Amino acid sequence: MDKQNLERLSRYTELVEQRLPHFTENKPQLYSVVYDAMEYSLTAGGKRLRPILMLEFCRMCGGDPEKYIDIACTIEMIHTFSLIHDDLPCMDDDDMRRGRPSCHKAFPENIALLAGDALNTLPFEVISGCALDGVVSDKTALMLISVLSRATGAEGMIAGQVIDLQSENKEIDIQTLNELQAKKTGALIEAACVMGVILAGAFDKIPAAAAYAQALGRAFQIVDDILDVTGTAEELGKPIGSDSEQGKTTYVSVLGLDRSYTEAQLLTSQAAEILGEFEDNSFLKELTVQLLSRRS
User: Fold this and answer.
1) Pair 54, 197: CB distance under 8 Å
2) pTM above 0.90, yes or no
3) One pLDDT digit (tens) per residue for the chain, 296 residues
4) Following DSSP, what letter does each residue of the chain receive, concatenated?
5) Looking at the DSSP assignment, which residues form a beta bridge with residue 100?
6) How many whole angstroms separate alpha carbon 176 and alpha carbon 252?
7) CA end-to-end span of the chain
8) Correct CATH for 3-292 of 1.10.600.10, 1.10.10.10, 3.10.20.30, 3.40.50.1100
9) Domain residue ranges of the chain, discontinuous segments joined by +
10) In whole angstroms, what is the distance from residue 152 CA to residue 138 CA?
11) Whole-angstrom Cα distance, residue 180 to residue 208?
């Protein structure tokens, strides 16, 4: 990445990292533990890819991204809620996340569950608060809530998780796998991109943002599946090989390593090509290509 794009990436990441603790800083004594658990997972690091996508699509479409940091943080809240719940014993049963104990290992399991629940509802309080404070219009807030809630609910991430659970120890075809990952991984990535466009008021660009996100989301998941086979626990911050141990169908198990990487390359190229519909897109093009070769 060139210097200017690196600076933009650092700036976006810094803004999100600095703002996230604000949402859990007030801890009422009687139930402070749930705020502690929320904060533990929310501030555990990560790429912050989804809020970065929202901010950059807003900028590319003529908006002021730094005005909407709180809204960008709502996407990271939803992502964090999904990770807390995915790690629970009744779901993927993972003990490590981002290089340290999962939320249900650092806190009682019931508190971890409630922390995830709280991070699933807080974003809608934040977005509606932005409307009440005049940061966005009522109509814009409604559009953002509609996009984010659909991506999170029974037609989005939850649908993907259900398909995932019901597919364990079964052979599923590539079409089912694509549907699973389009919802479990792709839906929130798409919501982030579309929300950025909405904030800038460039509604005619929503289809292009969605198409980019669909290609990027699938490429991102394929690389995840590859890293679960070829990566290390130190790089990923969690155990490797867990997909195979849990009997999950992945792109690697269906296509093999070589074909999986070829497919990820093709989807990355498609995503980068779609970005041609947006002006001043060099940052996101570089980031898109960079995600293909990531090691975590």
Assistant:
1) no
2) yes
3) 899 999 999 999 999 999 999 999 999 999 999 999 999 999 998 999 999 999 999 999 999 999 999 999 999 999 999 999 999 999 999 999 988 999 999 999 999 999 999 999 999 999 999 999 999 999 999 999 999 999 999 999 999 999 999 999 998 999 999 999 999 999 999 999 999 999 999 999 999 999 999 999 999 999 999 998 997 777 677 666 677 777 789 999 999 999 999 999 999 999 999 999 999 999 999 999 999 999 88
4) --HHHHHHHHHHHHHHHHHGGGGG----GGGHHHHHHHHHHHTS----HHHHHHHHHHHHTT--GGGGHHHHHHHHHHHHHHHHHHHSTTTT--SEETTEE-HHHHS-HHHHHHHHHHHHHHHHHHHHHHHHTTSS-HHHHHHHHHHHHHHHSTTTHHHHHHHHHHTTTS---HHHHHHHHHHHTHHHHHHHHHHHHHHHT-GGGHHHHHHHHHHHHHHHHHHHHHHHHHS-HHHHTS-SSHHHHTT---HHHHH-HHHHHHHHHHHHHHHHHHGGGSSS-HHHHHHHHHHHT---
5) 97
6) 15
7) 17
8) 1.10.600.10
9) 3-292
10) 21
11) 22
Q: Two tokens at 163?
A: 């398909």
Place of tokens 């807030």: 141
- Inter-residue contact 146 to 72 (CB < 8 Å): no
With contact defined as beta carbons under 8 Å apart, do 174 and 149 qualify? no
Pair 267, 273: CB distance under 8 Å: no
Scan for tokens 């141990």, then name that residue.
245
Give the number of other CB atoms < 10 A from CB of residue 201: 14
C-alpha pair distances (Å), 173 with each of 40, 120, 176, 254: 38, 31, 5, 8
